Structure formats: structure tokens, C-alpha cells
Amino acid sequence: MEDDVQIVRMIQEFLPKKDPNLVLYVATTSQQAVGILKENYIAVAIIDLALPSDSRMDGLEFCQFCRSRNPMIHYIATTGYCSLFDITMCRTIGFDDVILKPFQLDDLWNSVEYGFKKRGRWKSCAAVRNPPR
After folding, report:
1. More confident: 14 or 130
2. Torsion 71-73-79-83 (CA) sign
3. Structural domain count, the chain
């Protein structure tokens, strides 16, 4: 969820080069993002903490809302303004990672990739604990 068109374009160009099978969904408001989450399987969510005023929730509220409904998603916060307090708050709310803008795209990819790997480990664990009958 990002409202900066340049950042969205950068991400849309970069991430598919790292993984051509990656499906990206873009939302500029929390309302759009909630709709995407309801309709699609999401493994990783990249969320800008500062959202436009027409968004019903800021990034922290959105993460908290989503985490309570889908704790398996890997949540990444992006922000241009960050302190140790902000990072601690993000972690407490439920973000798995915090990336400061302007960020290196490889740093974003490392977090996204970690989220996919984590999700894969959890799926494997669930399959072992609950084998098909």
C-alpha cells in the first residue's frame, strides 16, 4: 500500500525481475488494500506508514487491523520518517520489517524474499503436523 507513484513504479519494475512469478497488487488507500486482501492470497504486504488523508487508516492501524485477521502475512513498513521509537512501535503493532525511505531495492527484495521463505517453512510445518488423510 503506497501512494507515491514513483515508488510504486520502481517496485513494479524491480520485483518481477527478481521473481517473474510474483503477482503484485497495488493499493493507494487502506480501503483499496482491504479489498485486495479479501479477494486474493497475499504472502507479503508492503505498507507505507504515511497514507493520504482519504485513507481511513494509517499504516500502523492498517497493519494492526490486518494482522488480527491474517497473522501469516509478512508485513513490511516503509517510511521516510523513523526513529528507534517508531521501529519499536512498528514491531509491537505487528510489522515484520521496517525499511527507511529512500531504500535500496535489494533491501526491499531481501525482506520480501524472507517473507516468502518464512511462509514456505510454515506451510511445510503445517503439512507435517496435519498430513492428508
Report:
1. 14
2. positive
3. 1
